[in-house]
Amino acid sequence: MSPAVGDKAPDFTLKNQFGSPVTLSEVLSTKAALIVFYPFAFSGICTGELCGVRDDLSRYQNDAVEFLAISCDPMPALKAWGEQEGYDFPLLSDFWPHGQVARDYGVFHEEAGFAVRGSFLVAQDGTVRWSVVNGPGEARDFGEAADAIAAL
User: Fold this and answer.
1) Average pLDDT, the chain
2) 54, containing H or E segment
3) What is the CATH number of the domain that holds 100?
4) Is the predicted pLDDT of residue 6 greater than 80, yes or no?
5) DSSP code at position 1
6) Three-class SS of residue 120?
7) How far apart are CA 140 and CA 56, in angstroms?
């Protein structure tokens, strides 16, 4: 089950596309976090969504909020994809133990082995302020996330 608005967000440490650890509680010590789970690097909908974020990044990553994109892809795939698409935000690998953070957030598709499109805005106090979960093949509306960030 996904954490609901008002719930404490599960803490985690995952490696980014460059192999550096990123810990949610450390991010929250300086700003809020928009956590976005997605199924696969190099896939059509995921690339389209994150290119949209890339092209308007200041709406999703700025002095008040950090954008964290998470998939179950291995780190080298995320590095290659990030370089290919010019992503200037952390791509975090939930590869091993496979999908554990996605499970903690209730967005791991057990039968298929990937994360569905879950989005969570976590305030600096660690509580979920906004969330939405889209199923496989359903693109998300990042405008809703931008509205939630503006309301922080």
Assistant:
1) 95
2) helix 44-55
3) 3.40.30.10
4) yes
5) -
6) strand
7) 15
Across the range 21-43, mean pLDDT stands at: 96
The reported pLDDT for the residue numbered 1 is 85
The answer to whether residue 80 sits within a structural domain is yes
Q: pTM for the full model?
A: 0.94
Give the count of beta carbons closer than 10 Å to the beta carbon of residue 139. 13
Catalytic (active site) residue 51? no
Q: Which of 71, 32, 33 is nearest to 49 (CA)?
A: 71
Give a yes or no: residue 8 inside a domain: no
Residue in this structure with the two tokens 């922080």, named with its chain if needed? 152
Q: What is the pLDDT of residue 44?
A: 82
Which percentage of the chain shows pLDDT scores above 70?
Answer: 100
**Domain total for the chain?**
1
Q: What is the pLDDT of residue 143?
A: 86
Is pLDDT above 80 for 113? yes
Instruction: Provide the domain limits for residue 109.
Output: 13-150
> Does residue 129 sit within a domain?
yes
Which tokens go with 96? 């091993």
Instruction: Indicate whether 3 belongs to any domain.
Output: no
Rounded to 5 degrees, φ, ψ at 126 are 90, 5
Catalytic position from the list 28, 34, 46, 78: 46
